[in-house]
Amino acid sequence: MPKIILLNEDTACRIAAGEVIERPVSIVKELVENSLDADADLVNIAITNGGIGAIEVVDNGCGISQEDTPLAFHRHATSKIISSADLENIRTLGFRGEALPSIASVAHLTIKTRVPTNHEGFQMVIQGGQVLHNGPVGCPVGTMISVKDIFFNTPARRKHLKSKTTEGGLIADFVYKMALIKPQTKFIFNHNGREVFRSPGSGKLHDVLASVYDVRAAKMMLPITGEEAGVKIDGYISKPELSRSTRQHMTVAVNGRLVHSSAVNTALEQAYRGKLTVGRYPVAVILIWLPFKQVDVNVHPAKMEIKMENEEQVMRLVISAASRALRETNLIPCQSKLPAASEPYKLQFPINTKQYPITPKSKINDMVAANWNGKQTSTMVDIPAAPVLPIGLEGELSKGPDPNTGCDITPTHITEVENAFSQLAEMANDYRNNCAFPDLHVIGQLMNTYILTQTGDGFFVVDQHAAHERILFEKFLYTLNRSTPEVQYLLTPVNISLRLHEKELLKEYAANLQAVGFVFEDFGRDSLLLRGIPVDCSPRESEQLIADLVETIIEQGKPGEAENKHAVAALLACKAAIKAGDRLSMEAMQMLIARLARADEPYTCPHGRPTTVSFTRREIDAMFKRT
């Protein structure tokens, strides 16, 4: 049995650093929280190369005395608690006394600090936990801490850091969230010498919302407030028309501490039930205040996880306040905010790219409906990515719109389009002979959501959205892996407002996004000009699509990597697919079923939901007691 020994201070600090300092954003969090505990109302954060190169945090707080500064770099040395009894009433953001020694043990750290009563400050230079220099220094009141060469002595951890853009984005997101929950503090954030963000510090949360997002988004935010039995909440939530594809923009603070709370998230989602589609989440800032003794913040080294004694009460209050705000507001989306690119458009294609002219859906539907014996109305929904047209018809389409109808396809082409559909049906029949997917015949549509079909001995119900998702998913995945993208160029380019780290992410992965059909260019400091999108996507939803893509990249990584292609293709397919509630013509439904039969995996959507459920004749007879 090995002999038990006491670990030395250096080893203990390195172990503690593994719990507290996971990546550059962890360092920024600990230093900013120390600044706020020092009553700073101005915090300046500067990083280089996503924080991997260097981090500097400067505040105008109370500073640390010359006598106490060396003590601050010993483990479990803190000015914020005295005994274990104080753990029941934590009022500060920091209290463990591990942040500074943990950071200093894995980096090169310099601190300059001065208290108001002294005319000179104090400086320490520490490398890997070893003090290289200390002594008096001239500096303003407050504290400046510079951290360089992070994880220089733990190369394995440094190796597993993400790209500088991703790491910088995580830091930016943290700064934005701190500005939202601390509106009385001015935060300044610089990356590679360039100012990225500056909060107003006015104490008004709505002002910070405008600076973190933009003025348009801030106008779509609704104030909420509520109080019950010592628990108080306030903040802002978004109208349903402003939503995101992840919970990343749901910011929660308890007693001024930024936290992850699944309970609060669940309560907020319940308030939006029926107002947001599945997989969409609101933008929100929820500030919760409750007695300090009812909160345990000592459950995780990073202090992001907490326990609340009265969690159910907090959830009820959040649901009540959010539901009231949504109920008392006109939630009809403003159509004037839709981008001009939603109007009918004529496409232009880059050199060396195969042309796939797109005709305005409304005109094609009207003409095709009129030709099919007048059985259908002009309200049928078009299914994107139609079958390959007969030889010669593509040349006719490229000549431009018919002078009489203004449409790319003239009445004389309808027969050829029908022939193309017949060819598709024949291909589907050939495919069915070689696979297990049944030969389905459409008989109708249920609740504008489900396609009703039958075979000789069974009844099948197809989820139109899930089926179209599967078809488009396989197409996008193929495009990502091997094919040339199909691009629809927007008649009016869309100006997309982005935060700097979001813009840098898109620029860094531009080649991967172009591979599926996105075309954009730089358009100023916080904007991109979107000129083209994948051919199956809606121009009307282009701005929302970009926002969702950014969140997907942040959450799952670079879209060009094999393990993430699935996620990007699934996102695009979900956005482009027909929705529940869209009324389809019989021809559109039959085309959708034929294309589903040709899919590699026709039985589920890319998220795993079934596309089709079946009932045998025997099961149906049994329901009606016919057996």
TrEMBL record:
Q: Which UniProt keywords apply?
A: DNA damage, DNA repair
Residue ranges of every copy of the MutL C-terminal dimerisation domain listed in the record: 442-584
Which species is this record about? Sporotomaculum syntrophicum
Please indicate if the UniProt record lists DNA repair as a keyword.
Answer: yes
Q: In the record, which residues are listed under signal peptide?
A: none
What is any one of the record's Gene Ontology cellular component terms?
mismatch repair complex
Task: State the name under which the record lists this protein.
Answer: DNA mismatch repair protein MutL
GO molecular function terms listed in the Swiss-Prot or TrEMBL record: ATP binding; ATP hydrolysis activity; ATP-dependent DNA damage sensor activity; mismatched DNA binding
Q: Which Pfam families match?
A: DNA_mis_repair, HATPase_c_3, MutL_C
InterPro entries, alphabetized: DNA_mismatch_repair_CS (IPR014762), DNA_mismatch_repair_MutL (IPR020667), DNA_mismatch_S5_2-like (IPR013507), HATPase_C_sf (IPR036890), MutL/Mlh/PMS (IPR002099), MutL/Mlh/Pms-like (IPR038973), MutL_C (IPR014790), MutL_C_dimsub (IPR042120)
> Is Cell membrane one of the keywords?
no
